[in-house]
Amino acid sequence: MLIDTFWKLLLKIIGLWLLFGFFSVIPQFFSMISFVDGGIDFQSLLLLSVGLCATIIILVIIIRLFLFKTSWIIEKLKLKDNFKEERIDLTIKSTTVLTIAIIVIGALILIESLPSFCSDLISFLQQKELLKDYPQTGWLIYHFIKIIFGYLLLTNAKNFTKFIEKESHEN
């Protein structure tokens, strides 16, 4: 494996980790609104909206760089320099490493969300309330979606790898 390929794989794995962590940013911003105790003024709401938009824009730019512009990052940070050898002796293909990374990330997402979902679900069932009246409904739905997302990553890792590789070669 070439040094360049190694860095590309590592940066894409970091980009995937950032991408999947990105989905928890938006619910966290909206949960901040609920802690205001009902008295929210326009200035606080505006500041919260600007913060959310700025965070989303920055994360999208960073994720795009890490997933699709890895060569540019390697060039700007001079990651290939200071290596005496041009190759690393590995016989594994880069797509295989990327597929394994997607599977591991999917498993981590699933493992992270399953306990929270089960805890919220048990709490919901014990309270015997309607779903619309339960105060943690948003988090219950959020963890359920994360479980489905983790499962889809586990079962469709090759498709995600093909998409990332295709987009990387087009850019």
Most strands sheet: none
3D shape: flat
Helix content: over 70%
Query: What percentage of the residues does DSSP assign to strands (E)?
Result: under 5%
Termini separation comes to 22 Å
Q: Could you report the average pLDDT, rounded to the nearest whole number?
A: 83
Work out the number of β strands: 0
Poorly predicted regions? none
In N-to-C order, the SSE pattern is: HHHHHHH
Please tally the helical runs, counting DSSP H or I stretches of 4 or more residues. Answer: 7
Assembly classification: single chain
Quickly count the domains: 1
SS class:
mainly alpha
Radius of gyration computed on alpha carbons: 20 Å
Protein name: DUF2975 domain-containing protein
Keywords: Membrane, Transmembrane, Transmembrane helix
Organism: Flavobacterium microcysteis
Transmembrane segments: 9-30, 42-67, 88-111, 139-157
Protein architecture, described:
This is DUF2975 domain-containing protein. Keywords: Membrane, Transmembrane, Transmembrane helix. The protein has helices at about 5-20, 25-35, 40-70, 70-75, 95-125, 135-155, 155-170. It has about 170 residues and is an all-alpha fold. The radius of gyration is 20 Å and the shape is flat. It contains seven helices and no strands. It has one domain.
Question: Strands, helices and their partners?
Answer:
Layout: H1 3-22, H2 25-34, H3 42-68, H4 70-77, H5 94-127, H6 137-155, H7 157-170
Keywords: Membrane, Transmembrane, Transmembrane helix
Transmembrane segments: 9-30, 42-67, 88-111, 139-157
Organism: Flavobacterium microcysteis
